[in-house]
Amino acid sequence: PEALLLVLVGVGGSTSWVPPEMLLPDVVLRTALGLTLFFLLPAVFVSVPLRLDRRQLLSWRPPPARAWAYLPLVVTGTLSGGMLLWKAAQELFPDTGMVEAYTDTMASFNTPLGLFVVSVVPAFAEELLFRGAVLGLLRKRLPAWAAVLLQAVAFALLHGIAARLPYTLLLGGLFGVLVVRTGSLWPGIVAHLAHNLVSTRLDEHFVAAVLATPLAPAMAVIGVWAVWASGGFGLRPVASSGVDPGTGSATGEAG
Known about the structure:
The chain is mainly α.
């Protein structure tokens, strides 16, 4: 119930709340305010009424050193996979109006402050909410795979546009697996930040050139492999909040 409430606050609030443009006409500042109010603050403070250890719930701990070594492959793989899925989804859901509106909106963020808001702020706000609080709460009641899948679906629905659903579902799932495998939110935050920063700077000609080679599918596969390998081969997923990630039952150990 607590995880569902957080999702409703984040997704519902960010999609239905209309900031007063007379008071805050800048779309960049409105976006930053919305992410802070409906994502960052609920994620950070939900542990207070639930009387939970915040650092444990949010997986706010250093990852194993090997996780950092795999991050370049993770980021490259998510970018390649994202380009493939974005192209395929545009063919399946040819809603050019929504895609053009999204492209026009993103053009408003083509400033240093805009890049910060569209890259750094979502990396922290969305990871803390979905892969931190929501995933942590779901893992108290569900097996790790189910918890990862549910938070990824919620994350994908947040982004609204049908053409973006497949690759945001992939990102949500992979970043969730990163938390489960490494026991830390930090690799996902860094990967999310790098993905957003690079993807907002890619131009259509470059994307088309990459998709015309075998590079994109190859790197997408390598990226998925790197997410799993970052936790170490042969190691169990790291438990969260005293929950066995394989069964969802209590282990009595801190994660």
